[in-house]
Specification:
- The complex is a heterodimer of chains A (907) and B (405).
- Chain A folds into 3 domains: 99 residues, Immunoglobulin-like; 117 residues, Ferric Hydroxamate Uptake Protein, Chain A, domain 1; 657 residues, TonB-dependent receptor, beta-barrel domain (Maltoporin, Chain A, Beta Barrel).
- Chain A has 907 residues and is mainly β.
- Helices cover 5% and strands 56% of the residues of chain A.
- Chain A is globular and about 100 Å long.
- Helix content of chain B is 5%, strand content 35%.
- About 5% of the residues of chain B have low confidence.
- Chain B has 2 domains: 34 residues, no CATH class; 330 residues.
- Chain B contains 2 helices and 35 strands.
- Chain B starts with a helix and ends in a 38-residue tail after the last strand.
- Classes of the chains: A mainly beta (907), B mainly beta (405).
- At the A-B interface, strand 25, strand 26, strand 28 and strand 39 of A face loops of B.
Chain lengths: 907, 405
């Protein structure tokens, strides 16, 4: 399939280069009122053949024109169309400057159906202004000019959006208004995309290159037509669409991370990695031997990292007299990045009044190489003015090779005696893994104007994603440093090899019928629709433990190197048939809604109700006697929504909104499989977990004084029922602890304000957005009661913020734009205040991420009509992620700065 | 069920009445005349099992066994259980193994090699009683590749393990957490743990007594006490007295040496009258243990060689055994009542240090007449114990009230 796409690219390229050199028409398009150059206006002759878009300076050039007489058309959204007949002779170069008049009519979505909208190119501001709900929009132009290489970085600049990142990896999930990713949903072209990740419901934003994006819409309130499982909001990644004119762009970039200037990149051989486990290769009854396992992937080598490279290609044009539009984009990234990380878990220290004390000191260094390739294909075919078909295919491939070196010293518990820093039993736990993810998402949709009053649209979405981790290998060795700092030799403590595989499938069908009319003079819209989705997941794991053979005289084997280590396969048939990580899970959703919008002179009223029925469940591959098997759950939610938009004038309006929404538990949260341990305690899913529901109230006042300028002030209040948080539980057994997702508190409240301000002073622009969010949860937590006669653990109600909720988020950008010379600079600053990142076991303390400030610089300069050089410099302040408890630093992830320079070619 | 019991009761009364005229010896065994509940037929067993393993019967466990919650698995004296295919016995109900000195119950694998069956997984059991039983060669890997404990408990129940032999396991022999109340008396645990594992590992809120046990050649520590680090209360508080711990802690390597007794993570020990010989380290009170409430004394420490050089690794590791009686990285200190570096004069001892997993134990740790350990014990160290501490040190006091093996 991939091959075919590339062939298509080559075919179209050859076709478009076949024009003969002839007459030229060029000029500049400006706003008749402000005289500002208009960028992105479409300039073309009567057919679509060789149309172009105006550039940043408002300039256009139409070359290769066969001499003759043409009707020139210039269109720009929000402006009157310009039309003029023009005659061109051989070799002639004509300059024609055009002033377009701004149309002072609103681009309201409420119109009686006439022609199919082309629904693109409208500026972000216009989208925000005319949306039915409360949105923030980032456009491709903004992304190109900001220092962001993937969707995650872009989103971190949207008001009220913060990005959650995991240690060591580059995975990133959007958090809207400080709510954890679980409360938000991420869409690609308006539909959910299955995640190949074992833990997350949504695709990680780092695999979506920003070059593929036309825009990102962040909806903070929901309409009944939108899926109801978003309490914080919805992030919609809208991929590029076929343009009116031929589009061809090439983007190349090289970069380097400061971390690999400061230390070496750790690499390992991938040559011996077996894609399948011994039992997958030879059958369930195969008795694996030590020789069946690779050793070279545990032979870690220090190397100098290569530079990161990015290559992007975008090609689009319209064919068949403009009826068929296609756009193909491919973005390839080869990135090298690393993390230096320290995490010291804490527990109540009985020798210091039960205050949190460090129980373990661990240092981790991650070296990652990640290859991403994103290929998107989008085609729209206008059957006629009233019927349109669209096809969108997104194919993402991601490969990760990661080496993790870990040095760990236990302070509390264990078998070593630590007597001061630098002593005790030191365990080296080194891991290598390679991971392949493939995500394929095909959407077919149709829009049909049935009559003057009725529009019918439908879509079918087929999505699959797979993730394979062949032979994640881990070796453990240890030695003891005595109080006099003398050290024992290294001892071999075992090797694990693990094969993981999961596959997710989504099949959705949705249909909507829209009726538009007028009551007296007020436009009325009524819309009904429904959705059915079946999702399922297959998850498999096969683990092997290689135990060291006893050394001479039956003692522990000394570790010299990986090739001389002697071991035996402790579970020679693998764990596949018994592993709780072998399960299938499903989720079926049926939803229907009805909504209306009536536009009075000053007031738009939008309201309706949505119903969603969910059934979820899972089955283990084999019966697990100690756990719940074959779990089935189902529930129905009725979700009303009302949006009011009062227009004071053309440039200012007030919105008020109420909606109800839900958050479903992720698969892995229901299935009680044992996960990586969390501070030494096992983390498990919880089949009893309830889905969260919320009532949401929003107000926003908007002013759009001029082009490129906006002021948005908003406030919101949410009541969240059954919020889901990761919690330490099961104290009943006298301290037999499990960490699991739970509905810790029956309810949480979240309230906040947001401000967005964008203004240009000549060439200098300022863009600031700030969100303040206050959340409150009251939930019981244990505390050591030393006052009563017998020492015991009692529970006290703790009042705190929601897990993962950031109180203050500030994004500020200073922009310099000199359209004349094609020179742009952006300095972007982001501030995130202290955030509760994890719940601590005991009352009165929690793990907080320390406040963070980030600075990024990006600049670009046009060299000529076709070439632009650019530079993107991220994390210039070398901001680490620091975890604290009671102000005491216990963990830190250091990523360091990242430097990229690149060249962009535009046809 | 109720009616059944009633009939049994009536039948019992009838028997009593009938035998009333006979001699007194005969009616003392009246309960024995009752048939066992759910007798299990000798032969192959697997799957969900409940009932009684009968005297003189041999059972072969062919696949994992589960005793459901509410069910009981009982064993009469002399029952023999042979476990095949690395199977495990999971007990979610009641386990009641009642052997006698004359006819112990036996659990062993068909191959009789160390680590060749799963063990007694009583993690969610309702009660565990094991008396006079051989539990040998357990601890084989579970299907996910983790070594298993020979006996594991994870719930706050009564756990009573007495007069039993536990040998040749692979990890912990008795691993208990989750608030259990324990009585671990007069057992012999030997040559267990492949290259890791404690003989008696007590974590998270365990209370009770460990007394008159012999632990020989365990990979890790003979008795290890901890409270859960995240939950300081309830604490693990255990009395450890009159035990004999010999040649332990060598198979885990110098990086993680084993001890006779270790007390860590907010745990409290009351450790008296123990004999510790040739252990890698002796009594370790870790810096994170509850040193305020832990009490100890009257313990005997001895090494047949003051230092030994471990030549199995390069560079060689020199172990100073005398310095290790109270290791320098801990906060425990020799007490005036201790007998430090004094030979306890066992009946026989081969002066072993490092031995392989599954090694034979040819020694006799009874005390010779004239042993300095005789009469040096404390019979009252300020806490209530389930059995009387003895004035002689170790598991074999001269009055014969200790270990019967």
């Amino acid at each position: 399939m991939v091959k075919n796409f590339y062939l298509t690219i080559i075919f179209i390229l050859s076709a478009s280069l076949a024009f003969a050199q002839n007459a030229t028409l060029k000029g500049k398009v400006i706003d008749a009122g402000t005289k500002a150059p208009l960028q992105g206006a479409s300039v073309h002759f009567d057919d679509y053949k060789n149309g172009v878009l105006t550039d940043d300076k408002g300039e256009y050039t139409l070359s290769n024109i066969t001499p003759g007489e043409y009707k020139l058309k210039i269109k720009f959204i929000g402006y009157d169309e310009f039309e003029q007949k023009i005659k061109l002779k051989t070799g002639q170069v004509i300059t024609l400057d055009v002033r377009l008049k701004s149309r002072n009519v609103s681009l309201a979505t409420v119109n009686v159906f006439g022609k199919m909208d082309k629904e693109s190119e409208s500026a972000a501001r216009t989208s925000e202004k005319n949306a039915n709900n409360i949105t923030n929009v980032v456009t491709a132009k903004v992304m190109e000019r900001s220092p962001d290489i993937n969707a995650a970085n872009v989103l971190s600049r949207v008001s009220g959006v913060t990005i959650q990142r995991n240690t060591g990896g580059d995975e990133a999930y959007a958090m809207i208004r400080g709510l954890e990713p679980r409360y938000d949903n991420t869409l690609i072209n308006g539909v959910k995309v299955t995640s190949p990740d074992a833990k997350s419901r949504y695709v990680s934003l780092d695999v979506v290159p920003s070059d593929l994006l036309q825009r990102i819409e962040v909806s903070k309130t929901l309409l009944p037509e939108m899926e109801g499982d978003a309490i914080g909001g919805t992030v919609n990644l809208v991929f590029k669409e076929a343009p009116d004119t031929t589009l061809f762009k090439v983007n190349t970039q090289v970069g380097y991370s400061q971390i690999f200037l400061d230390r070496k990149f750790i690499d390992f051989s991938k040559a011996g990695i077996n894609p399948e486990s011994p039992s997958q290769l030879h059958g369930d009854n195969y008795v694996a031997k030590s020789a069946d396992f690779d050793r070279s992937n545990l032979d870690f080598q220090s190397k100098t990292a290569l530079p990161s490279t990015v290559i992007g290609l975008t090609y689009g044009r319209r064919l068949l007299k403009g009826k068929l539009g296609i756009i193909i984009a491919d973005n390839f990234q080869n990135q090298f990045y690393g993390t230096n990380s320290q995490f010291n878990p804490v527990a109540p220290n009985p020798q210091n009044d039960y205050k949190p004390g460090i129980t373990d000191v661990s240092n981790l260094t991650y070296s990652n190489q990640q290859l991403n390739n994103g290929l998107t294909f989008h085609a729209d075919y206008k059957i006629d003015d009233r019927n349109q078909l669209l096809v969108t295919n997104v194919l993402l491939y991601s490969y990760l090779a990661q080496a993790r070196l870990s040095i760990d010293t236990g302070i509390v518990g264990g078998n070593g005696g630590r007597n001061g820093p630098g002593t005790g039993t030191v365990t080296n736990d080194d891991r290598s893994l390679t991971q392949k993810e493939l995500l394929e998402n095909l959407k077919l949709e149709g829009k049909h104007i049935l009559s003057k009053h009725f529009l019918f649209d439908w879509a079918g979405v087929f999505s699959t994603s797979t993730r394979k981790v062949p032979d994640e290998a881990d070796i453990s060795i240890n030695h003891l440093i005595a109080p006099d700092f003398s050290s024992t030799p290294d001892y071999f403590d075992g090797i694990t090899h693990s094969w993981q595989h999961n596959n997710d499938r989504d099949e959705s069908g949705l249909a909507n019928l829209t009726y538009k009319s007028k009551i007296k003079e007020a436009p009325l819209m009524i819309k009904i629709g429904g959705l059915y989705r079946h999702k399922d997941r297959y998850n498999a794991e096969d683990n092997y433990l290689l135990q060291p053979l006893a050394g001479p005289a039956g003692g522990k084997q000394q570790f010299v190197n990986i090739y001389s280590a002697q071991d035996t396969v402790y579970n020679p048939k693998g764990s596949a048939q018994y592993d709780v990580n072998n399960y299938t899970a499903f989720e079926d959703i049926g939803a229907g809604y009805a909504e209306f919008k009536i536009s009075l002179a000053k007031l738009d009223i939008f309201g309706g109700v949505r119903a969603e029925h969910t059934s979820q469940g899972f089955d283990y591959a084999t019966f697990i006697p100690s756990l719940l098997n074959d779990v089935r759950k189902s529930y129905t939610d009725i979700l009303p929504s009302l949006q009011l938009n009062y227009k004071f004038s053309d440039i200012s309006q007030l919105r008020a909104s109420y909606f109800s929404s839900i958050s479903r538990p992720n698969y892995y949260e229901l299935v009680p499989y044992v996960n990586d341990s969390f501070n030494g305690n096992p983390e498990m899913g919880n089949p009893a977990l309830k889905h969260a529901t919320a009532d949401n109230f929003d107000l926003r006042y908007e002013i759009y004084p001029h082009e490129d300028e906006e002021i948005l002030v908003s406030a919101f209040y949410k009541t969240l029922y059954n919020p889901i948080e990761l919690s330490i539980s099961d104290f009943g057994g006298g301290g037999n602890i499990v960490v699991e997702p739970e509905n810790v508190a029956p309810k949480a409240t979240i309230e906040g304000i947001e401000l967005v301000y964008t203004k240009y002073f000549g060439k200098i622009g300022v863009s600031v957005n700030y969100a303040y969010t206050y959340s409150n949860v009251k939930a019981p937590k244990p505390v050591a009661d030393t006052v009563s006669a017998t020492n015991q653990t009692v529970f006290k109600l703790e009042s705190r913020t929601l897990q993962g909720q950031t109180p203050d988020a500030l994004n500020a950008s200073l922009l310099y734009r000199d359209k004349e010379h094609g020179f742009f600079v952006q300095l972007a600053y982001q501030y995130l205040s202290r955030t509760l990142s994890q719940l601590y076991a005991d009352y009165g303390s929690d793990y907080y991420t320390k406040a963070q400030s980030f600075l990024a610089l990006s600049a670009e300069k046009s060299l000529n009509k076709h070439f632009i050089i650019f530079g993107k410099f991220n994390n210039l302040l070398n901001t680490p992620t620091t975890i604290q408890i009671n102000g005491l630093t216990i963990g830190q992830n250091i990523y360091k700065a990242n430097y990229n320079i690149g060249l962009r070619y535009i046809l | 069920m109720k009616t059944n019991k009633f009939y049994l009761f009536v039948a019992g009364l009838a028997v009593l009445t009938a035998l009333g005229s006979c001699s007194k010896e005969k009616n003392t065994n009246v309960t024995k005349a009752l048939p066992p509940s759910n007798p299990i037929t000798a032969g192959n067993i697997s799957g969900f099992v409940k009932g009684t393993l009968l005297t003189g019967s041999t059972y072969t466990v062919t696949a994992d066994i589960t005793v459901k919650k509410g069910d009981t698995l009982a064993a009469q004296p002399g029952a023999i259980v042979i476990i095949k295919a690395d199977a495990q016995i999971t007990v979610d109900g009641v386990l009641q193994i009642l052997g006698t000195q004359a006819s112990p119950v036996s659990f062993n694998s068909d191959t009789k090699t160390p680590g060749s069956w799963g063990g007694l997984a009583c993690d969610s059991a309702q009660a565990v009683t094991i008396k006079w039983a051989h539990i040998d060669n357990a601890g084989g890997p579970d299907p996910t590749g983790s070594p298993r404990k020979t006996i594991s408990v994870g719930v706050p129940i009564k756990v009573d393990i007495e007069d039993s032999w536990i040998t040749n396991g692979q990890d912990d022999e008795i691993g208990i957490k989750g608030g259990a109340q324990i009585t671990i008396l007069r057992n012999t645990i030997q040559s267990s743990g492949s290259t890791d594992g404690e003989a008696i590992n007590l974590k998270t809120a365990i209370t009770g007594d460990v007394a008159y046990n012999v632990v020989y050649s365990q990979a890790g520590t003979a008795v290890k006490l901890e409270t859960n680090a995240d939950v300081p209360f309830p604490q693990t508080i255990v009395n450890v007295y009159n035990n004999t711990f010999v040649s332990n802690g060598w198979r885990r390597g110098a990086a993680e040496p084993g001890r006779g007794i270790s007390v860590g993570v907010n745990a409290v020990a009351h450790a008296y009258n123990n004999i510790m010989v040739n252990n890698y380290q002796g009594f370790e009170l870790f810096t994170d243990g509850d040193a305020v409430h832990t009490t100890y004394g009257n313990n005997l420490f001895f090494a047949t060689s003051a230092t030994i050089i471990d030549q199995t690794v390069t560079p060689n590791v020199t172990v100073n055994l005398v310095a290790n009686f109270y290791p320098s990285d801990g906060v425990g200190k020799a007490q005036t009542t201790d007998l430090v570096n004094i030979d306890p004069m066992f009946n026989s001892f081969n002066s072993s240090f490092l031995l392989p997993n599954g090694a034979a134990n040819p020694n006799d740790f009874h005390l010779k007449a004239g042993s300095p350990a005789i009469g040096k014990g404390s019979t009252n160290f300020g806490v209530t114990t389930v059995v009387k501490p003895n004035v002689d040190l170790g598991a074999y006091p001269t009055d014969g009230t200790g270990n019967k093996h």
